[in-house]
Backbone:
């Protein structure tokens, strides 16, 4: 029996695949490579020494997804696949709703057909909106303020309704705060398309010389240095949180939401200073106006994940920055020069190398 990982080639997905393989799970990956690179999966195989199947399929392709279930014995799904840029979601909201919501509905319909009712869903702290009081517990009312966050909130509601209709389902909703860092090997990490949307990839690209300077959005918040404070979590800690949630859904029924963060916040300037210490590089920056909807302070109450999943983040800010810098130095252009972008071709592709298989169906 295997674990199906949708979006497994992405940043969080690839790190979770490493942890799954290292703990002895068999995995199957579905990814359309719109926001990821096949090279990341070759490196997952390299790191773990394990073979796994990967299907180049979009979740909107119901026929292709059904083939994945018919060809494999699947016991649970970890669902990462989805569009994820807040700014882009404001520009093309219908694209986000179609991709994220309809893709999830098709996935759940296929799971139901094949009797697979254990699901770990990649949600987001954006479901809480920008006015939640800190530390933010899971019981906080949801009020996402952009199409990306609303798509996550809507999916959570769909999954709640699914369980109410059939209480043999077991679902974990994992609300991430701010994943950063990379695998300690430096072989896999965050590889954003274009200018990064998130703070640490932006900082690291300034440090490596790809970008000239960091834009800081506001320094007049009611915080110790005037810059916004966020809860940053090492991506490997986050990946391990998925394994603990997977264990939970395999042994219980119901729907539960869990915050995955560290339970403390760091300001933008603290992050800059930590990265300068880790890299030995100076990070030039300029302060510009606040972005609409940004909260001054946002960090998680993580007691529920600790008490119910037995999970707690173990890695600190220094390790987060050190591992990010190792990834960035080793891969200044990300995965781009070492891979083909398979989804740009309409012809079927099947490739096996170093334990890696892609099937375009």
Residues:
């Amino acid at each position: 029996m295997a674990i199906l990982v949708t979006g497994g080639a992405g940043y969080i997905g690839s790190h979770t695949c490493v942890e799954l393989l290292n703990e002895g799970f068999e995995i199957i990956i579905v990814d359309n490579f719109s926001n990821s690179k096949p090279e990341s999966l070759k490196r997952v195989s390299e790191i773990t020494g394990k073979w796994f199947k990967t299907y180049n399929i979009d979740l909107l392709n119901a026929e292709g997804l059904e083939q994945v279930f018919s060809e494999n014995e699947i016991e649970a799904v970890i669902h990462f696949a989805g569009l994820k840029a807040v700014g882009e979601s404001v520009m093309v909201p219908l694209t986000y709703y179609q991709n994220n919501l309809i893709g999830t509905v098709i996935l759940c319909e296929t799971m139901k057909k094949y009797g697979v009712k254990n699901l770990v869903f990649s949600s987001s702290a954006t479901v809480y909106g920008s006015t939640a009081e800190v530390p933010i517990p899971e019981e906080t009312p949801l009020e996402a303020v952009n199409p990306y966050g609303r798509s996550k909130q809507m999916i959570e509601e769909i999954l709640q309704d699914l369980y109410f209709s059939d209480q043999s389902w077991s679902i974990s909703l994992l609300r991430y705060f701010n994943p950063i860092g990379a695998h300690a090997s430096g072989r896999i990490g965050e590889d954003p398309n274009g200018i990064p949307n998130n703070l640490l990839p932006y900082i690291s690209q300034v440090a490596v010389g790809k970008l000239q300077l960091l834009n800081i959005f506001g320094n007049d918040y009611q915080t110790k240095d005037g810059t916004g404070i966020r809860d940053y979590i090492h991506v490997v800690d986050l990946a391990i949180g998925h394994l603990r949630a997977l264990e939970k859904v395999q042994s219980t029924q119901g729907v539960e939401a869990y915050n995955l963060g560290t339970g403390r916040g760091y300001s933008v300037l603290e992050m800059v200073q930590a990265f300068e210490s880790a890299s030995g590089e100076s990070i030039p920056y300029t302060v510009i106006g606040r972005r609409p909807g940004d909260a001054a302070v946002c960090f998680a109450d993580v007691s529920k994940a600790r008490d119910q999943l037995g999970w707690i983040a173990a890695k600190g800010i220094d390790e987060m920055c050190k591992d990010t810098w190792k990834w960035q130095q080793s891969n200044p252009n990300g995965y781009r020069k070492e891979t083909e972008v398979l989804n740009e071709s309409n012809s079927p592709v099947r490739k096996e190398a170093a334990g890696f298989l892609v099937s375009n169906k």
User: Anything to note?
Assistant: The chain has one domain: 2-360. The longest helix spans residues 93-113. The two ends are 22 Å apart (CA to CA).
